[in-house]
Amino acid sequence: MIRIRGVRKSFESQLVLDGVDLDIPERSVVSIIGPSGSGKSTLLRTIDFLETANAGTIDFGEGPVSLTSTKPKDIASVRAKIGFVFQNYNLFLNRTVLDNVAIGLIHAKGKGRKEAVRIAYDELDRVGMAGFADRYPSKLSGGQQQRVAIARAIAMDPELLVLDEPTSALDPEMVDGVLAVIKSLADSGTTMLMVTHEMRFARNASDQVVFFEGGNIVEQGKLEHIFSHPNEPRTARFLSSIHDVNVLDDWKPEELVTIQQTHSKSPTSEFSN
After folding, report:
1. How far does the chain reach from its first CA to its final CA, in angstroms?
2. Is residue 170 part of a domain?
3. Over the stretch 159-183, which tens digit does the pLDDT of each residue have?
4. How many domains, in total, are found in the chain?
5. Which of 127, 65, 135 is nearest to 98 (CA)?
6. Is 273 a domain residue?
7. Which of 13, 18, 28, 136 has a 20 to 30 Å separation from 39 between CA atoms?
8. Which pTM value belongs to this model?
């Protein structure tokens, strides 16, 4: 169980996070939904020290670490446990796809070049991108770049995969491919915390759903409870404004089947300079 407690964050005089408490069970997917500007992405950035909190802790089972800390040891200990997938990919444009995945393994994990390349190919294969290992990000679609970003995050073998609206920057026709990759990871038992506006996906891939507004959790619970029988009127009003919540439980884009059944075969090559 990953425990987040008492997270507060202000930007000057504006309170953005107001004492957030959240538990993330191991091998579960927790999706955070809610209106824009409610503090969802700020919470994700705060637990990875991309923003410094005013108060709060995170505990991966080894004791709480203060999210107000500026100690390199504290920051490194938390970041080593989190894989972060950003809205806008954040790939190195001057590095190949393979390099983008392998470089963190070499510099952050201390892996040798050969081992880093092997792991990178395995993870690229897992997201259906091994055949693009020698390409540069500028030659990829947005959906393909986001798959590479996911491969980069999971290659680090994090205890928690954090995804901040991973489809928000994509053209509509690219969304299902990325969601298929995430669904495949969820089915394999990856622990995830995801902010998403894709209600269809949240309903079909989540174990728990959190409705967030005004810098705090309004309601949280099992998937079926939140979508079918929310306790809070505000949650019900938000969901009633979404047009795609009544989706089939067996939602499975065609591309998910391809990712699960077909793995491209690419020869391991040296990490490019």
Report:
1. 40
2. no
3. 999 999 887 777 776 777 778 888 8
4. 2
5. 135
6. no
7. 28
8. 0.81
